[in-house]
């Protein structure tokens, strides 16, 4: 026994001396005393904690050393093959075709799209040689083809050329862009605004610029496709409220707040996302109530005015002018220069903090070329015209009323749109009760689940039948000299099934008489096509 | 008649002024240049507007006046005058030639000092935040939660922008005016509070523009394309009003799409009104859940955006590394979808033709080799390469001599080489029809506007050349082989056609000048000892700076020279943290003299900032400028 101890003696002394040198060296490192004291005291207080901390340390090291690519080779789902097997698998694999061929219906719809030969306008000529009344193009205030605008455009062309040849960050910001941003901000009454070069890509970039993972977005169930894409990119937590139902919104806001308090979650950024005039059915949001709710629950409001900007309010400033709400109450006001001012691009107006943040973080702003100078000047001129001629908006509203007066009381048409909306959606109403006829949702009294985009009582309708009838109506109206269009949606890609509709885009460039005439043609087409079914 | 008379008198005045000035100035020009440059101007306005006249920088007028037989139709400040036919080149892939040079490593002290610089910046930034939040809380209000609202952007997320980027913010978002052509007019600005706000000083500076994406020099306010666009504005107005499927389709759209398909050499093409959106709205129609996208790690943000929207799985391979791609392909095909191991519905490999931050070309021949074996679909983003590469300007396929139909989807933009805006997707008819129906663009996004369409048509026709035929022989026109000229019947009948567009000399001249400029700058910078990335024929030339501090200094020194030059500096997050760089974008509108100006500036600033870290053989600047043609014609770099 003692011999073994004697034999081990040098080992022990060596270990002790090594430990001694290690210790002295350790204490030579500046700050090591603090670490040692911390470890000692934590161990004294709670020995379990030391074990836990060691485990945590090992875990952290392991995580750091792990490969960061997904589905790595060591994963438990990884199957090891040898080279020959892989070659066989490669040979065996046959991919689906890249693009599925169009069905005969899709092909027919694509071929039926009318093409305008020459300039667009209230009465364009089509490639078929026919001159038609145009209730399809977004030319609400009749700015397309305006002589003053064309003149300015040519002047700009001779000073700037056409393209901007660069993103805004790299010498693509021209003085005309700065001017248009200023014009839009002044027109709306916000501090600043920022231009994007395509309207569709504006809001899908604005939303993820602000709302990140973990932030909360409360959105309308009927928001347009661009917003849906923005929500998807943002990866935020989304809660849905019933379409244009602010009572439902309040319930959702209340439930989110309750959930936060119950779980003791930290405060995150919170947004309400909705549209001014809805792209899917032409309803108008109740902006004063929205602002009241967002202030009460301390949310920020992202309002898409792609349809309402340039079509509503005394001079076309949109919803804020209609309801007399200061535009500063809307945190991010997104609009379309292409629709509202008949040029191209989109904008987001708001405080200068909101706008400047997007100059670095708005993906489609940063990574895209600035819009052509000509379009920016055309839009500035458009704002000028709207400002100085309120009569444009008055005649637009008169035309809207004229069309409503013809179509409102037709048996086979349901108009969901607000009477002041410049886009009028027409749904087919099938009179016979034996058919699966669309019914307004019967409220069961219970609120819908805010986690799901599908409402509790979704509207019932026969998509294919209605789509077919509407397409027949569009073609019938075209044969009678009125160009209208179905509201095209990507079925299956939209989050909810959007009810097929014909969307009439009213323009102030047509006379009231022409509008009535066109509306009567549409009415006759509806009656003829729906009647033929019976 | 009166306009012609005033034009002639203005031209002679300009000539006289240029001649007078050149006497005092000729000392700075090299002998080779005296053959090449001249002056005229086709626009009376441009000549008369530029008072008070001075030509110290040679930007508005050439330093050397023209000989009597030289006539130039372009404005020198937009599209430089260059008559010397030896400053031309035709770039194409030499099989077996050097495809990509091995990337050179900088000395270790450069890397170390770069890391230290960032460390210092970050420490100082945090220190300023720490003190600032206590001393001046009002300036941090928007970063703190207040009144029940969470801060709109957290101080952590915005740290990089506030504390690093803001310091050199004067090099970004510079407001400009006029044509972004060979030169560009800067609207000078000044900042009283270290770049937080700016005010315009009211002065303007004309600078040599080596930053805009204007590869073929079609950014012009005069000339054939501008005339065509003017005519189209008078006929069509400015807007198309609506989406393609909902009443926004014009005959111009169909003509432009047919022409683009013919240009690219595919069955069909579709056009979208925004370049970014072409990727972000079309990729989701190609792939979806159950499909796999294999993407080069340096692909553009728009591609990532589109892929994220599509819901498909994504894997990345190392930039341009074919072994990495093949290994990945073998893995994913054999493993199938994650967890379920079901076979993938389809695999789409997305690469770019020319990488805009690297100047690298994708190794298309190798990718197509792999495509044969692994049956994936190939999507090539030619945003920067279309028009800018290949003997006929048809992009990477043309450069490598590959049939464009062997690539499934060819995507590109009109912003860069065509001086327009928007983008296109070209491919088989049934795929394009599918994208017209299922892509987001057709149903939701505004259609491209008539002036932009006309610019696309005119510039494309100019590159292709036009064959004039009678209407009866329209059947023959179908038989014109790719990449032949476009039959005049495919163009709008009202479009004015300049003679140089018809015989194709305009397009050929642009392509050959760009190829010369690109090769010259690429090789000359390397011979001067700079570290650059990319292929010799790439019109994008990144020059590595490394240290963050050098970025701003480089840009400011270039901008404040006697001949101001504007450059683009790029840093993290667009590039890896250490490899900050300055990026030159060449154009056909640059003259050899302009490249010499850039080289001289780089040479001086490079010495000052210790940028010449290359291991390549060094040549003195004078020798490089004198032997430019030789340098370009060399098969391999010395």
From TrEMBL, chain A:
- Keyword annotations from UniProtKB, A to Z: Acyltransferase, Lipid metabolism, Pyridoxal phosphate, Sphingolipid metabolism, Transferase
Any one biological process term the GO annotation gives: sphingosine biosynthetic process
Q: Does the keyword Transferase apply?
A: yes
Location of the Aminotransferase class I/classII large domain: 131-521
Record pathway: Lipid metabolism; sphingolipid metabolism; Sphingolipid metabolism
Q: What is its EC number?
A: 2.3.1.50
* Top-level EC class: transferase
Q: Which PANTHER family match?
A: CLASS II AMINOTRANSFERASE/8-AMINO-7-OXONONANOATE SYNTHASE (PTHR13693), SERINE PALMITOYLTRANSFERASE 1 (PTHR13693:SF2)
* This protein's name: serine C-palmitoyltransferase
TrEMBL record, chain B:
| Residue stretches spanning the membrane | none
Q: Where is the Aminotransferase class I/classII large domain?
A: 208-463, 507-600
Bias type Low complexity, positions = 24-37
Q: MF terms per GO, please? A: pyridoxal phosphate binding; serine C-palmitoyltransferase activity
One BP annotation, GO: ceramide biosynthetic process
Reactions catalysed, as given in the entry: L-serine + hexadecanoyl-CoA + H(+) = 3-oxosphinganine + CO2 + CoA
**Entry keyword Ribosomal protein:** no
One Pfam family cited in the UniProt record for this chain: Aminotran_1_2
Q: Which PROSITE patterns match?
A: AA_TRANSFER_CLASS_2
**Keywords, alphabetical:** Acyltransferase, Endoplasmic reticulum, Lipid metabolism, Membrane, Pyridoxal phosphate, Sphingolipid metabolism, Transferase, Transmembrane, Transmembrane helix
Enumerate the cofactors the protein uses: pyridoxal 5'-phosphate
EC numbers: 2.3.1.50
- Region entry Disordered: which residue ranges? 16-37
Keyword Endoplasmic reticulum assigned to the entry: answer is: yes
Subcellular localization:
Endoplasmic reticulum; Membrane
**Pathway in which the depicted protein is active:** Sphingolipid metabolism; Lipid metabolism; sphingolipid metabolism
Q: Which InterPro entries match?
A: Aminotrans_II_pyridoxalP_BS (IPR001917), Aminotransferase_I/II_large (IPR004839), AON_synthase_class-II (IPR050087), PyrdxlP-dep_Trfase (IPR015424), PyrdxlP-dep_Trfase_major (IPR015421), PyrdxlP-dep_Trfase_small (IPR015422)
| A cellular component term, taken from the record's GO annotations | membrane
Which protein family is named in the record?
Answer: Belongs to the class-II pyridoxal-phosphate-dependent aminotransferase family.
Mind telling me what this protein is named? serine C-palmitoyltransferase
């Amino acid at each position: 026994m003692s011999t073994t101890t004697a034999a081990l003696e040098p080992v022990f002394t060596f270990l002790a001396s090594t430990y001694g040198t290690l210790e002295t060296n350790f204490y030579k490192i500046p700050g090591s005393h603090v670490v040692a004291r911390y470890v000692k005291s934590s161990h004294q207080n709670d020995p379990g904690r030391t074990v836990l901390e060691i485990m945590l340390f090992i875990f952290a090291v392991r995580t750091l050393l792990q490969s960061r690519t997904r589905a790595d080779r060591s994963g438990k789902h990884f199957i090891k093959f040898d080279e020959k097997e892989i070659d066989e698998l490669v040979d065996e694999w046959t991919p689906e075709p890249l693009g599925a061929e169009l069905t005969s219906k899709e092909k027919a719809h694509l071929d039926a799209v009318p093409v305008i030969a020459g300039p667009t306008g209230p009465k364009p000529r089509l490639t078929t040689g026919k001159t038609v009344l145009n209730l399809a193009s977004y030319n609400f205030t009749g700015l397309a083809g305006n002589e003053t605008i064309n003149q300015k455009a040519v002047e700009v062309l001779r000073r700037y050329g056409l393209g901007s040849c660069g993103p805004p960050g790299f010498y693509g910001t021209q003085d005309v862009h700065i001017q248009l941003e200023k014009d839009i901000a002044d027109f709306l009454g916000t501090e600043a605004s920022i231009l994007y070069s395509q309207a569709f890509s504006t809001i899908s970039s604005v939303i993820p610029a602000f709302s990140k993972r973990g932030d909360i977005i409360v959105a309308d169930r009927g928001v347009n496709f661009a917003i849906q894409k923005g929500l998807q990119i943002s990866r935020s937590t989304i809660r849905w409220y019933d379409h244009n139902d602010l009572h439902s919104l309040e319930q959702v806001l209340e439930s989110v707040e309750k959930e936060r308090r119950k779980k003791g979650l930290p405060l995150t950024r919170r947004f309400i996302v909705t549209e001014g005039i809805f792209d899917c059915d032409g309803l108008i949001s109740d902006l004063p109530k929205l602002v009241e709710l967002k202030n009460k629950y301390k949310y920020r409001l992202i309002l898409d005015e792609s349809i309402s900007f340039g079509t509503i309010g005394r001079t076309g400033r949109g919803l804020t002018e209609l309801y007399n709400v200061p535009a500063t109450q809307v945190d991010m006001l997104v609009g379309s220069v292409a629709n509202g001012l008949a040029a191209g691009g989109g904008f987001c107006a708001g405080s200068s903090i909101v706008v400047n943040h997007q100059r670095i973080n708005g993906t489609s702003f940063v990574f895209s070329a600035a819009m052509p100078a000509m379009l920016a000047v055309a839009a500035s001129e458009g704002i000028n015209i709207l400002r100085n001629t309120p009569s444009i908006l008055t005649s637009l509203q008169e035309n809207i009323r004229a069309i409503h007066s013809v179509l409102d009381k037709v048996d086979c048409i349901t108009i969901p749109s607000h009477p002041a909306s410049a886009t009028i959606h027409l749904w087919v109403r099938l009179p016979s009760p034996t058919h699966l006829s669309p019914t307004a949702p019967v409220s069961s009294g219970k609120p819908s689940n805010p986690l799901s985009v599908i409402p509790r009582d979704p509207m019932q309708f026969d998509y294919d039948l209605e789509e077919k009838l509407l397409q027949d109506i569009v073609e019938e109206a075209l044969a009678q000299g009125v160009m209208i269009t179905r509201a095209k949606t990507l079925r299956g890609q939209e989050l909810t099934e959007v009810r097929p509709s014909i969307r009439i885009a009213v323009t102030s460039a047509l006379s009231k008489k022409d509008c009535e005439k066109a509306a009567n043609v549409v009415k006759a087409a509806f009656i003829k096509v729906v009647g033929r079914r019976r | 008649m009166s306009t012609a008379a005033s034009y002639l008198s203005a031209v002679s005045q300009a000539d006289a002024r240029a001649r007078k000035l050149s006497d005092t100035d000729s000392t700075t020009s090299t002998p080779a240049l005296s053959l090449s440059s001249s002056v005229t101007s086709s626009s009376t306005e441009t000549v008369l507007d530029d008072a008070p006249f001075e030509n110290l920088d040679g930007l508005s007028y050439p330093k050397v006046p023209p000989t009597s037989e030289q006539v130039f139709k372009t404005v020198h400040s937009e599209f430089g005058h260059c008559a010397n036919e030896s400053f031309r080149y035709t770039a194409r892939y030499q099989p077996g030639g050097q495809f990509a040079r091995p990337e050179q490593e900088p000395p270790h002290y450069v890397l170390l000092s770069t890391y230290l610089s960032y460390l210092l910046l970050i420490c100082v930034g945090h220190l300023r935040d720490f003190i600032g939040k206590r001393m001046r809380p009002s300036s941090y209000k928007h970063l703190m939660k207040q009144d029940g609202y969470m801060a709109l952007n957290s101080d952590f997320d915005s740290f990089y922008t506030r504390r690093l980027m803001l310091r050199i913010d004067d090099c970004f978002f510079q407001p400009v005016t006029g044509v972004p052509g060979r030169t560009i007019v800067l609207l000078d600005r000044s900042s009283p509070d270290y770049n937080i706000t700016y005010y315009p000083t009211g002065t303007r500076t004309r600078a040599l523009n080596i930053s805009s994406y204007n590869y073929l020099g079609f950014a012009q306010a005069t000339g054939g394309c501008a005339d065509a666009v003017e005519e189209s504005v008078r006929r069509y107005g400015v807007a198309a009003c609506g989406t393609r499927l909902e009443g926004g389709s014009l005959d111009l759209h169909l003509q432009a799409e047919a022409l683009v398909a013919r240009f690219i050499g595919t069955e069909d093409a579709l056009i979208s009104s925004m370049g970014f959106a072409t990727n972000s709205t079309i990729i989701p129609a190609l792939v979806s859940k159950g499909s796999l996208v294999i993407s080069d790690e340096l692909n553009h943000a728009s591609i990532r955006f589109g892929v994220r929207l599509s819901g498909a799985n994504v894997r990345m391979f190392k930039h341009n590394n074919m072994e990495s791609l093949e290994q990945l392909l073998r893995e994913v095909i054999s493993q199938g979808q994650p967890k379920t191991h079901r076979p993938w519905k389809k695999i789409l490999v997305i690469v770019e033709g020319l990488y805009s931050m690297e100047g690298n070309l994708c190794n298309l021949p190798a990718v197509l080799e792999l495509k044969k074996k692994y049956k994936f679909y190939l999507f090539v983003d030619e945003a920067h390469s279309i028009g800018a590469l290949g003997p006929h300007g048809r992009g990477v396929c043309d450069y490598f001599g590959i049939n464009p139909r062997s690539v499934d989807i060819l995507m590109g933009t009109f912003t860069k080489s065509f001086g327009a805006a928007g983008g296109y997707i070209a491919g088989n008819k049934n795929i394009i029809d599918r994208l017209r129906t299922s892509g987001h663009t057709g149903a939701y996004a505004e259609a491209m506007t008539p002036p932009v369409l006309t610019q696309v048509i005119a510039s494309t026709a100019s590159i292709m050349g036009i064959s004039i035929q009678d209407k009866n022989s329209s059947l023959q026109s179908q038989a014109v082989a790719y990449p032949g000229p476009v039959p005049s019947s495919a163009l709008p009948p009202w479009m004015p056609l300049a003679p140089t567009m018809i015989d194709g000399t305009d397009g050929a001249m642009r392509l050959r000048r760009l190829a010369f400029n690109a090769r010259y700058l690429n090789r000359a910078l390397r011979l001067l000892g700079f570290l650059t990335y990319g292929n010799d024929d790439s019109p994008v030339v990144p020059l590595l700076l490394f240290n963050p501090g050098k970025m701003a200094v480089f840009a400011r020194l270039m901008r404040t020279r006697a001949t101001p030059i504007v450059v683009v500096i790029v840093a993290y997050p667009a590039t890896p943290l250490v490899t900050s760089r300055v990026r030159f974008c060449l154009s056909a509108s640059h003259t050899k003299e302009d490249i010499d100006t850039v080289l001289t500036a780089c040479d001086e600033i490079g010495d000052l900032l210790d940028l010449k870290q290359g291991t390549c053989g060094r040549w003195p600047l004078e020798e490089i400028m004198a032997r430019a043609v030789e340098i370009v014609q060399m098969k391999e770099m010395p």
